[in-house]
Protein backbone atom coordinates (compact mmCIF):
# COMPACT_ATOMS: atom_id res chain seq x y z
CA UNK A 1 0.00 0.00 0.00
CA UNK A 2 1.40 3.38 -1.01
CA UNK A 3 1.90 5.76 1.93
CA UNK A 4 3.13 9.33 1.75
CA UNK A 5 6.23 10.62 3.52
CA UNK A 6 4.48 11.34 6.83
CA UNK A 7 2.99 7.85 6.94
CA UNK A 8 6.36 6.21 6.25
CA UNK A 9 8.06 8.26 8.99
CA UNK A 10 5.37 7.30 11.51
CA UNK A 11 5.71 3.67 10.48
CA UNK A 12 9.45 3.64 11.20
CA UNK A 13 8.99 5.52 14.48
CA UNK A 14 6.53 2.87 15.65
CA UNK A 15 8.97 0.14 14.62
CA UNK A 16 11.79 1.69 16.70
CA UNK A 17 9.44 2.27 19.64
CA UNK A 18 8.24 -1.33 19.57
CA UNK A 19 11.81 -2.60 19.34
CA UNK A 20 12.79 -0.72 22.51
CA UNK A 21 9.60 -1.86 24.23
CA UNK A 22 10.27 -5.46 23.22
CA UNK A 23 13.80 -5.45 24.69
CA UNK A 24 12.64 -3.92 27.98
CA UNK A 25 9.58 -6.18 28.16
CA UNK A 26 11.61 -9.35 27.59
CA UNK A 27 14.12 -8.27 30.25
CA UNK A 28 11.41 -7.53 32.84
CA UNK A 29 9.44 -10.68 32.09
CA UNK A 30 12.55 -12.87 32.13
CA UNK A 31 13.74 -11.41 35.43
CA UNK A 32 10.30 -11.78 37.00
CA UNK A 33 9.86 -15.38 35.86
CA UNK A 34 13.32 -16.30 37.03
CA UNK A 35 12.73 -14.78 40.48
CA UNK A 36 9.36 -16.55 40.63
CA UNK A 37 10.44 -20.07 39.63
CA UNK A 38 14.09 -20.17 40.66
CA UNK A 39 15.03 -22.85 43.20
CA UNK A 40 16.44 -20.23 45.57
CA UNK A 41 13.35 -17.99 45.52
CA UNK A 42 10.47 -20.40 44.90
CA UNK A 43 10.04 -21.10 48.61
CA UNK A 44 9.08 -17.48 49.33
CA UNK A 45 5.95 -17.82 47.20
CA UNK A 46 5.00 -21.10 48.85
CA UNK A 47 4.96 -19.63 52.36
CA UNK A 48 1.56 -18.14 53.12
CA UNK A 49 2.90 -15.53 55.54
CA UNK A 50 5.24 -14.07 52.90
CA UNK A 51 2.73 -13.76 50.04
CA UNK A 52 2.13 -10.09 50.82
CA UNK A 53 5.80 -9.15 51.22
CA UNK A 54 7.48 -6.49 49.13
CA UNK A 55 9.54 -9.08 47.28
CA UNK A 56 6.50 -11.04 46.13
CA UNK A 57 4.70 -7.86 45.06
CA UNK A 58 7.78 -6.64 43.18
CA UNK A 59 8.18 -9.92 41.30
CA UNK A 60 4.49 -9.91 40.39
CA UNK A 61 4.77 -6.36 39.05
CA UNK A 62 7.77 -7.37 36.91
CA UNK A 63 5.87 -10.30 35.37
CA UNK A 64 2.68 -8.33 34.71
CA UNK A 65 4.49 -5.28 33.32
CA UNK A 66 6.71 -7.37 31.04
CA UNK A 67 3.72 -9.33 29.72
CA UNK A 68 1.71 -6.17 29.01
CA UNK A 69 4.63 -4.58 27.19
CA UNK A 70 5.07 -7.64 24.96
CA UNK A 71 1.34 -7.65 24.15
CA UNK A 72 1.56 -3.98 23.18
CA UNK A 73 4.59 -4.71 20.99
CA UNK A 74 2.77 -7.57 19.25
CA UNK A 75 -0.17 -5.40 18.20
CA UNK A 76 2.09 -2.48 17.29
CA UNK A 77 4.47 -4.46 15.09
CA UNK A 78 1.69 -6.37 13.36
CA UNK A 79 -0.33 -3.23 12.69
CA UNK A 80 2.63 -1.14 11.48
CA UNK A 81 4.29 -3.81 9.30
CA UNK A 82 1.05 -5.22 7.82
CA UNK A 83 -0.70 -1.82 7.80
CA UNK A 84 -3.77 -3.17 9.62
CA UNK A 85 -5.91 -0.42 11.09
CA UNK A 86 -7.67 -2.74 13.56
CA UNK A 87 -4.37 -3.81 15.17
CA UNK A 88 -3.17 -0.20 15.27
CA UNK A 89 -6.36 0.87 17.03
CA UNK A 90 -5.86 -1.81 19.69
CA UNK A 91 -2.24 -0.68 20.01
CA UNK A 92 -3.36 2.93 20.46
CA UNK A 93 -5.81 1.92 23.18
CA UNK A 94 -3.17 -0.04 25.09
CA UNK A 95 -0.63 2.77 24.79
CA UNK A 96 -3.20 5.30 26.02
CA UNK A 97 -3.95 3.04 28.99
CA UNK A 98 -0.23 2.74 29.82
CA UNK A 99 0.22 6.50 29.50
CA UNK A 100 -2.62 7.19 31.91
CA UNK A 101 -1.40 4.54 34.34
CA UNK A 102 2.11 5.95 34.28
CA UNK A 103 0.81 9.42 35.13
CA UNK A 104 -0.91 8.02 38.21
CA UNK A 105 2.16 6.02 39.28
CA UNK A 106 4.49 8.96 38.65
CA UNK A 107 2.40 11.33 40.76
CA UNK A 108 2.17 8.80 43.59
CA UNK A 109 5.91 8.05 43.42
CA UNK A 110 6.73 11.77 43.53
CA UNK A 111 4.37 12.56 46.40
CA UNK A 112 5.43 9.49 48.43
CA UNK A 113 9.08 9.27 47.43
CA UNK A 114 10.23 8.41 50.96
CA UNK A 115 7.87 5.43 51.19
CA UNK A 116 8.78 4.25 47.69
CA UNK A 117 12.46 4.38 48.61
CA UNK A 118 11.87 2.27 51.71
CA UNK A 119 9.93 -0.31 49.71
CA UNK A 120 12.68 -0.61 47.11
CA UNK A 121 15.29 -0.84 49.88
CA UNK A 122 13.27 -3.68 51.39
CA UNK A 123 13.18 -5.41 47.99
CA UNK A 124 16.97 -5.09 47.79
CA UNK A 125 17.36 -6.54 51.29
CA UNK A 126 15.29 -9.57 50.23
CA UNK A 127 17.55 -10.12 47.22
CA UNK A 128 20.63 -9.78 49.41
CA UNK A 129 19.27 -12.32 51.92
CA UNK A 130 18.56 -14.77 49.08
CA UNK A 131 22.10 -14.30 47.78
CA UNK A 132 23.56 -15.09 51.18
CA UNK A 133 21.25 -18.05 51.89
CA UNK A 134 21.91 -19.61 48.47
CA UNK A 135 25.67 -19.46 48.96
CA UNK A 136 26.23 -16.82 46.30
CA UNK A 137 23.77 -17.60 43.51
CA UNK A 138 25.42 -16.27 40.30
CA UNK A 139 22.12 -15.01 38.83
CA UNK A 140 21.29 -13.01 41.97
CA UNK A 141 24.90 -11.86 42.00
CA UNK A 142 24.42 -10.33 38.54
CA UNK A 143 21.41 -8.33 39.78
CA UNK A 144 23.28 -7.16 42.88
CA UNK A 145 26.27 -6.16 40.76
CA UNK A 146 24.03 -4.05 38.54
CA UNK A 147 22.44 -2.32 41.56
CA UNK A 148 25.79 -1.76 43.28
CA UNK A 149 27.39 -0.22 40.21
CA UNK A 150 24.34 1.91 39.39
CA UNK A 151 24.13 3.38 42.91
CA UNK A 152 27.80 2.99 43.87
CA UNK A 153 27.12 1.13 47.10
CA UNK A 154 28.27 -2.13 48.65
CA UNK A 155 25.90 -4.59 50.36
CA UNK A 156 24.00 -3.94 53.55
CA UNK A 157 27.04 -2.94 55.63
CA UNK A 158 29.36 -1.12 53.26
CA UNK A 159 32.42 -2.51 55.08
CA UNK A 160 34.29 -4.54 52.48
CA UNK A 161 36.23 -6.51 55.07
CA UNK A 162 33.14 -8.16 56.52
CA UNK A 163 30.80 -7.77 53.56
CA UNK A 164 29.63 -11.14 52.25
CA UNK A 165 28.68 -9.80 48.80
CA UNK A 166 31.91 -7.88 48.31
CA UNK A 167 32.47 -9.61 44.95
CA UNK A 168 29.49 -7.68 43.60
CA UNK A 169 30.66 -4.30 44.90
CA UNK A 170 32.05 -1.62 42.54
CA UNK A 171 35.61 -0.38 42.50
CA UNK A 172 36.35 2.20 45.23
CA UNK A 173 36.87 5.79 44.15
CA UNK A 174 39.22 6.81 46.96
CA UNK A 175 41.40 5.44 49.74
CA UNK A 176 38.61 5.49 52.34
CA UNK A 177 36.29 3.49 50.11
CA UNK A 178 38.73 0.61 50.24
CA UNK A 179 37.62 0.27 53.86
CA UNK A 180 34.06 1.60 53.97
CA UNK A 181 31.59 2.30 51.17
CA UNK A 182 27.97 3.52 51.33
CA UNK A 183 25.57 0.70 52.17
CA UNK A 184 22.83 0.04 49.63
CA UNK A 185 19.61 0.11 51.74
CA UNK A 186 20.40 3.61 53.02
CA UNK A 187 21.58 4.75 49.59
CA UNK A 188 18.37 3.53 47.92
CA UNK A 189 16.15 5.19 50.51
CA UNK A 190 17.96 8.52 50.37
CA UNK A 191 18.23 8.48 46.59
CA UNK A 192 14.47 8.30 46.04
CA UNK A 193 13.91 10.86 48.77
CA UNK A 194 16.54 13.39 47.72
CA UNK A 195 16.28 12.89 43.94
CA UNK A 196 12.52 12.77 43.59
CA UNK A 197 12.68 15.32 40.76
CA UNK A 198 15.06 13.05 38.81
CA UNK A 199 12.70 10.12 39.25
CA UNK A 200 9.82 12.30 38.09
CA UNK A 201 11.86 13.31 35.04
CA UNK A 202 12.26 9.63 34.16
CA UNK A 203 8.49 9.19 34.30
CA UNK A 204 7.97 12.32 32.18
CA UNK A 205 10.44 11.09 29.55
CA UNK A 206 8.69 7.75 29.31
CA UNK A 207 5.34 9.53 29.09
CA UNK A 208 6.60 11.62 26.16
CA UNK A 209 7.64 8.46 24.31
CA UNK A 210 4.21 6.91 24.85
CA UNK A 211 2.48 10.06 23.59
CA UNK A 212 4.69 10.16 20.47
CA UNK A 213 3.85 6.51 19.76
CA UNK A 214 0.14 7.25 20.25
CA UNK A 215 0.25 10.22 17.85
CA UNK A 216 2.18 8.26 15.20
CA UNK A 217 -0.26 5.37 15.46
CA UNK A 218 -3.24 7.69 14.94
CA UNK A 219 -1.59 9.37 11.95
CA UNK A 220 -0.70 6.02 10.40
CA UNK A 221 -4.30 4.81 10.73
CA UNK A 222 -5.54 7.92 8.89
CA UNK A 223 -2.94 7.54 6.15
CA UNK A 224 -3.82 3.87 5.61
CA UNK A 225 -7.54 4.66 5.36
CA UNK A 226 -6.81 7.50 2.93
CA UNK A 227 -4.68 5.23 0.76
CA UNK A 228 -7.42 2.59 0.70
CA UNK A 229 -10.24 4.99 -0.14
CA UNK A 230 -8.36 6.91 -2.87
CA UNK A 231 -9.29 5.85 -6.48
CA UNK A 232 -6.78 4.05 -8.64
CA UNK A 233 -6.32 5.26 -12.24
CA UNK A 234 -4.82 3.48 -15.27
CA UNK A 235 -2.82 5.82 -17.48
CA UNK A 236 -3.31 5.06 -21.18
CA UNK A 237 -0.73 6.08 -23.74
CA UNK A 238 -0.90 6.36 -27.54
CA UNK A 239 1.62 3.57 -27.93
CA UNK A 240 -0.81 0.81 -27.05
CA UNK A 241 -0.92 -2.11 -29.55
CA UNK A 242 -4.64 -1.61 -30.20
CA UNK A 243 -4.08 1.95 -31.40
CA UNK A 244 -0.85 1.23 -33.25
CA UNK A 245 -2.52 -1.28 -35.59
CA UNK A 246 -5.72 0.22 -37.06
CA UNK A 247 -8.54 -2.20 -37.88
CA UNK A 248 -9.17 -3.18 -41.49
CA UNK A 249 -11.55 -1.11 -43.58
CA UNK A 250 -15.26 -1.75 -43.41
CA UNK A 251 -15.46 -2.47 -47.11
CA UNK A 252 -12.96 -5.29 -46.81
CA UNK A 253 -14.60 -6.95 -43.84
CA UNK A 254 -18.17 -6.37 -44.96
CA UNK A 255 -18.36 -6.28 -48.77
CA UNK A 256 -22.14 -6.07 -48.83
CA UNK A 257 -22.02 -2.55 -47.46
CA UNK A 258 -21.08 -1.34 -50.96
CA UNK A 259 -24.63 -2.09 -52.23
CA UNK A 260 -27.30 0.56 -52.54
CA UNK A 261 -29.09 1.28 -49.30
CA UNK A 262 -32.64 0.11 -48.86
CA UNK A 263 -35.05 2.98 -48.21
CA UNK A 264 -38.09 2.32 -46.00
CA UNK A 265 -41.12 4.56 -46.36
CA UNK A 266 -42.21 5.92 -42.98
CA UNK A 267 -45.66 4.97 -41.80
CA UNK A 268 -48.36 7.58 -41.53
CA UNK A 269 -51.14 7.72 -39.04
CA UNK A 270 -53.59 6.51 -41.67
CA UNK A 271 -51.53 3.44 -42.44
CA UNK A 272 -51.30 2.33 -38.84
CA UNK A 273 -53.92 -0.43 -38.20
CA UNK A 274 -56.23 0.22 -35.27
CA UNK A 275 -57.57 -2.82 -33.42
CA UNK A 276 -61.36 -3.12 -33.21
CA UNK A 277 -63.07 -3.87 -29.96
How would you explain this protein's 3D organization?
The structure is a single chain. The protein has 277 residues and is an all-alpha fold. It is built from ten helices and no strands. The chain has helices at residues 5-37, 42-46, 54-82, 85-111, 113-133, 138-151, 184-194, 196-229, 241-244, 250-253. Helix 5 (113-133) runs antiparallel to helix 6 (138-151) and helix 5 runs antiparallel to helix 7. The longest helix is centred in the C-terminal third of the chain and has 34 residues, at 196-229. The radius of gyration is 37 Å and the shape is elongated. The two termini are 70 Å apart. The model has no long low-confidence stretch (mean pLDDT 78).
Annotation field: number of helices = 10
Strand content: under 5%
Please state the oligomeric state of the protein chains shown: single chain
| SS content category | mainly alpha
Q: What is the straight-line distance between the termini?
A: 70 Å
Estimated radius of gyration: 37 Å
Helix-strand sequence: HHHHHHHHHH
Low-confidence stretches: none
Work out the helicity level: 55-70%
Q: Work out the number of β strands.
A: 0
What does the overall shape look like?
A: elongated
Write the layout of secondary structure elements.
Layout: H1 5-37, H2 42-46, H3 54-82, H4 85-111, H5 113-133, H6 138-151, H7 184-194, H8 196-229, H9 241-244, H10 250-253
Helix pairs in contact: 1-3, 1-8, 3-4, 4-8, 5-6, 5-7
